Amino acid sequence: MALRAGVAGGVLSTIAVAGSANAATAAEPVTETIEMPMLTAALTSKVALSAEATQQAADGYQYRAEQQRAAEKAVKDAEKAQHAAEKKAEAAAEKQAAERAATAERAARGAERTDLSGVRTAATTSSSGSGASAPSQDVPAPASGSVATVVAFLQAQVGDAYVMGGTGPNSWDCSGLVQAAFKQVGVDLPRTSQAQSTAGTQVGTANLQVGDILYWGGQGSAYHTGVYIGDGKYLDAANPSKGVVIQDLSGYPASGAVRVL
Q: pLDDT tens digit string along 188-235?
């Protein structure tokens, strides 16, 4: 029993000592500290200044970028406005040119349709029952073979340009070409279509002969003339798009005809 008591006491003592040591160790305070870096006033000021400079630089970049975009937009807008102005001016110029051309053509047509005193000749009829008419005395009688000369001259002009008021040698209007053709054989015709439609003897379009002068419109108020060259065809200075051409009479029937040869 004594032995048991001693063993037990020894064990308890050991436990007590161990407990005391652990308690002492646990109660010992931690004295180690970590020192944090301190921001001085100078460092703080430098950091603030750096941040402000960075912000100012960013603001400057943004301002310059906005200015550049605005300048580019202004240039593009100016280019568009200039292009639109050029197109508008071009359209206005074309319109004015067309109006001037139309005015000139109307004036020329009006001049051709004006009766000129001293150049109109009326056809005379023979005595009752004959049904024939005599040539006007204002148109001289041509020499033999004159029709062929007139037709040859006209055919030589095929392909020439039509120009209002043109009298040759490379551009013609309708009455200018007819006048020049008959002048080759000594026949002095009036200058305008209106007057040419009354020169010589009036003949029906159903009884045409080579060399007859065809006219479109009324007698004395014709607006176009040409020359019958046979086989249902005529030659004329037609218009600016065609020039001097040979055409089929069935496509554009004449209103009347006069014969001076």
A: 999 999 999 999 999 989 999 999 999 999 999 999 999 999 999 999
- What pTM was computed for the model? 0.48
Domains by residue range for the chain, with CATH: 139-259 (3.90.1720.10)
Residues 6 or more apart from 175 whose CB is under 8 A from it? 112, 190, 191, 192, 193, 196, 225
Q: 167 near 180, Cβ under 8 Å?
A: yes
Long-range contacts of 135-140 (CB under 8 A, 24+ apart): 135/200, 135/201, 135/259, 135/260, 136/199, 136/200, 136/201, 138/199, 139/187, 139/188, 139/189, 139/199, 139/200, 139/260, 140/186, 140/187, 140/188
Contact between residue 255 and residue 217 where contact means Cβ atoms under 8 Å apart: yes
Max intra-chain CA distance, the chain:
195
Neighbours of 121 (CB within 10 A): 20
Element (H, E) at 100: helix 41-112
Over the stretch 54-102, which tens digit does the pLDDT of each residue have?
788 778 788 888 888 888 888 888 888 888 888 887 777 777 766 766 6
DSSP label of 167: B
Q: What is the pLDDT of residues 96-142, one digit of tens each?
A: 766 766 665 555 544 444 433 333 333 333 333 333 333 333 444 44
Query: E strand or H helix at 33, and its extent?
Result: none
